[in-house]
Design brief:
Largest sheet: 3 strands, mixed
Order of helices and strands: HEEHEH
Shape: globular
Structural class: alpha+beta
Strand order of the largest sheet: 1-2-3
Number of strands: 3
CATH topology: GMP Synthetase, Chain A, domain 3
Helix content: 25-40%
Strand content: 25-35%
CATH class: Alpha Beta
Distance between the termini: 34 Å
CATH architecture: 2-Layer Sandwich
CATH superfamily: BolA-like
Radius of gyration: 12 Å
């Protein structure tokens, strides 16, 4: 998998105001900003992102994905 492929899968399953994916081919880092995270705890946000990858995590196509998830308001505040 490439960063672009992972990014496209996340974007296809989740409406994102900002999305970046970086990594070395096995270990990935994502920053995901979505209004769909409003009112959700961190684990629920991560589950939403993982769900966009389907079985890619289970069959080891995506070995590891660490992520930072923000609502648009949280993202704006972090950039201030």
């Amino acid at each position: 998998m490439t960063a672009e492929q992972i990014q496209a899968m996340i974007a296809a399953g989740l409406s994102c105001q900002h999305l970046t994916v970086d990594g070395d081919g096995r270990h990935w880092q994502a920053v995901v900003v979505s209004a769909q995270f409003e009112g959700l705890r961190l684990i629920a946000r991560h589950q939403k992102v993982y769900s966009t990858l389907g079985n890619k995590m289970q069959n080891d196509e995506v070995h590891a994905l660490s992520m930072k998830t923000f609502t648009p308001a949280e993202w704006a505040k972090s950039k201030a």
